[in-house]
Amino acid sequence: MRLKVLVTGNSERIIENLCEHLRMDRNYITVDCCNRIEILPDIIYRELPDCIMVCLNNENAQSVKQYDVLENFTQTGMISIFVVGREDDRELFKQNTSLQKVFFLDRPVPLLAMYQKMGQIEKELEDMRRRNPNGVEEFVNINQNIESNKKHILVVDDDPNQLVQVKELLKDFYETTLVRSGEAAIKYLRQHKVDLVLLDFLMPEMDGPTVFKEIRSYEKIKDIPVIFLTGMTEKETVTRIVLKLKPQGYLVKPIKKSELVAKIIDVLG
């Protein structure tokens, strides 16, 4: 099989160099996502890569936290993440990331070591697909009556920094799933059980009120509680719409942890 590798980060030179090596040396399929971290989840959903390579360059704590959005994609075990950077950037990444598992590579990149690890990933994916060629696996959960201790919250916001912030605020109390568009939210809700939705009010293409109306019009998800997240400049508009739509409430950004958790407790009990 040919691995598909998505390469992203803040160093265009390193990204171009890596993509060239991956194509020429191993005939891998590469996707260049240089300096487009804000739309990274959308590209991953579209391209479905086997590996993601993050190229660090003069990072700070906030820029490293942006990559926490990748956690949702690693939970299936089908996508591996490599982080390329010098020692100071790698240490900063370790101190600030919420990702559970990554493979670190030094700069300049040790190509032989990288190809050996990717070869292992190729073999594991081939074995997995050989055991389950059509991608459909039947699973009967013998523990289906045992409830999780944590409620599941879907967070919808087109700002990746806001998604990371909310995930960080709630990580001790709730399971969270992050999506960056109204369309992705509706698709997810129709396929997964969610206890509450935190919904950004102002988003491109499909804004919060439109998503809310979609939720309420679909029988299987119409009763899911919804809390709007809104900026201070939108507060008056949100107040008027809240009176009409009657969600479970709204919170004004920047969001405080105490207010967010208190509101969720008020809704979910």
What does this molecule look like?
With 269 residues, the protein is α/β, with parallel strands linked by helices. It folds into two domains: 4-131, Rossmann fold (3-Layer(aba) Sandwich), CATH 3.40.50.2300; 152-268, 3-Layer(aba) Sandwich (Rossmann fold), CATH 3.40.50. It is 43% helix and 18% strand. The chain contains eleven helices and ten strands. It has helices spanning 12-26, 40-47, 61-65, 71-74, 87-96, 111-131, 160-170, 182-189, 208-217, 235-245, 257-268; strands at 4-9, 29-34, 51-55, 80-84, 103-105, 152-156, 175-179, 196-200, 226-230, 250-252. The strands form two sheets. Strands 2-1-3-4-5 form a five-stranded parallel sheet, with helices on both faces. It has a five-stranded parallel sheet with strand order 7-6-8-9-10, with helices on both faces. It starts with a strand and ends with a helix.
Q: Would you spell out the secondary-structure blueprint of this structure?
A:
Layout: E1 4-9, H1 12-26, E2 29-34, H2 40-47, E3 51-55, H3 61-65, H4 71-74, E4 80-84, H5 87-96, E5 103-105, H6 111-131, E6 152-156, H7 160-170, E7 175-179, H8 182-189, E8 196-200, H9 208-217, E9 226-230, H10 235-245, E10 250-252, H11 257-268
Parallel strand pairs: 1-2, 1-3, 3-4, 4-5, 6-7, 6-8, 8-9, 9-10
Helix pairs in contact: 8-9
Number of helices: 11
* The CATH fourth-level homologous superfamily of the largest domain: Response regulator
Order of helices and strands: EHEHEHHEHEHEHEHEHEHEH
CATH class of the largest domain: Alpha Beta
Strand order of the largest sheet: 2-1-3-4-5
